[in-house]
Amino acid sequence: MEQVAIHGVFVGQLRTLREEDEMEVAVVAYGTGSVGVNVRTGEVVHGPTGSDAAVDAATVKQAVFASAAPLVAVAADSRAVAVYDASTTPWSRRALLALPKRPSSVAFASDLDLVVADKFGDIYRLPIPPNTNNTNNNNNNNK
């Protein structure tokens, strides 16, 4: 088995519509990929992210969990943030948000918006598009 260096583990509580389905999830970032794992059972709930080339082509920098919805945002050096609907297994990509610069910090402002900052101090509030099958969502960055 090939050994791969892990460069980040991001743990959060994954909210679902049914309280009994809530779980603590770890997003493990390695090389140019990531995988979501149920902390209690060890079950892989997402990934590896080999099919998400826009995020996989670069190092994953951060993963954050929405507080009231089953959403996970994964930021990468590729100047993109992928937002996943975690109510499905594997997670389905809800949006791919292009950024002008590499993100250094990401947070959910609500279940409808992300706040993204870069190392130059620019902060963007990005709307998360409604759940559709369109994975190439373009956005207008609101600075």
UniProtKB/TrEMBL annotation:
The residues forming a coiled coil are none
Q: Where in the cell is it found?
A: Nucleus
- Its GO biological process terms? RNA (guanine-N7)-methylation; tRNA modification
Q: According to its record, what are the GO cellular component terms?
A: cytosol; nucleus; tRNA methyltransferase complex
Q: Which terms are listed as keywords in the entry?
A: Nucleus, Repeat, WD repeat
Where mainly located? nucleus
Write the signal peptide boundaries: none
Q: Which InterPro entries match?
A: Trm82
Please give the PANTHER family that the UniProt record associates with this protein: TRNA (GUANINE-N(7)-)-METHYLTRANSFERASE NON-CATALYTIC SUBUNIT WDR4, WD40 REPEAT PROTEIN 4
Name used for this protein in its record: Uncharacterized protein
Query: Which species does the entry assign this protein to?
Result: Physocladia obscura
